[in-house]
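Lab notebook, page 48
Experiment: co-folding of the full assembly
Goal: obtain a model of how the components sit together before planning crosslinking
Operator: M.T.
Materials (sequences as entered):
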Amino acid sequence: MKILAIETSCDETSVAIIEGSTNSLNSGVRVLSNVIFSQIPYHRLYGGVVPEVASRNHLLKINSVLKEAILKTGFNNQNIKDFLNSIDAIAVTVGPGLVGSLLVGVGFAKALAYASGKPLIPVNHIEGHIYANFISEFEDKKFKIPSFPFLGLIISGGHTILILVEDHFRYQILGQTLDDAVGEAFDKVGKMLGLSYPAGPEIEKLAFEGNPAAFAFPRPLIKENNFNFSFSGLKTAVLYTLKNQKLDLEKRQVICDLAASFQQAVIDVLVSKTQKAAQKYKIFNIVVSGGVAANKTLRKAFVSAFSKQKAELFFPENILCTDNAAMIGAAAFYSHFLREKKIPFSEIEASPNLYLK
Ligand code: KG4
Ligand code: ZN
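Observation: model returned without errors.
Model output:
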């Protein structure tokens, strides 16, 4: 089954073509092309995503991103119609996300599905992040896909959720953030340190040169007997440290130490909560995804924390951690086969507040 997938929920305009075998759902999906147009340079000017700028740029870019994704699979400008005949379905992110951004992708996908007569599969963006781990072949590299049950930790710019996944699309939410998402905390702390948006990758780089024990930042909710998270207090702790200690941000070592200490606090909380859940539910298949999952220090901390248990850890390729359409195609592939309830075309719409259910 070949699926054309579209993702426009935030500030990445992305179109992918993925393929999966209907005879062997356990083999995962293969990515034929995954084109991502990142709008980061436009939003960087404002220090964060500006919704109006995001939707305008999706509108400007979506046609050329679609064309590039098709051309990469070997079709040319003359036989784009043949390409549309060759696919089995069209998938699109319907939420959660920015309404104006979602509307561009959903409207575009609906038009394509209507014109081509192919079924349209609506995809929840958070499920997309989980299914980034069900991509078994990407740019000629092969990966193993997770087996059920597993614990899923979704850590992105908009979400921080720990779930117990019993089977495809059957999950229990164990905990989530009560305020800021992890990626959001990275971005906000980065802003305080004078870094540009998105600050996650930059904080990671600076942290390599810093001392993670230089500042004793709090580990919010780490001792609480639940799986919820909170990062706004940690962000405030960084702010007060900057103010009260009158730190000189002109000194590179100070910034590196702040970055390393903040990052370590975040990692400690994420690892500790996931470990507690693993022990409580006796599940040692751990699937981490979302933009923050690209962080190498975090990956290492998970590997080391779970090294004593016979755990299997799964992280997507870096480019599949941040927003992309390939993960939306992967979720759509499984959803199409395994979800009994199909949503009629007329009911598919942008749902900015869509949640996991
Ligand atoms: O998954 P994503 O592209 O968007 C959402 O669905 O929200 O995640 C983007 C977030 C940003 O907050 C960014 O700073 C963070 O992921 N991020 C990182 C790293 N790479 C991206 N955070 C920490 N370390 C990284 N290497
Ligand atoms: Zn995302």
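Interpretation: Residues 125, 129, 156, 323 surround zinc ion (ligand 2) (CB under 6 Å).
Next step: discuss with group before ordering constructs.
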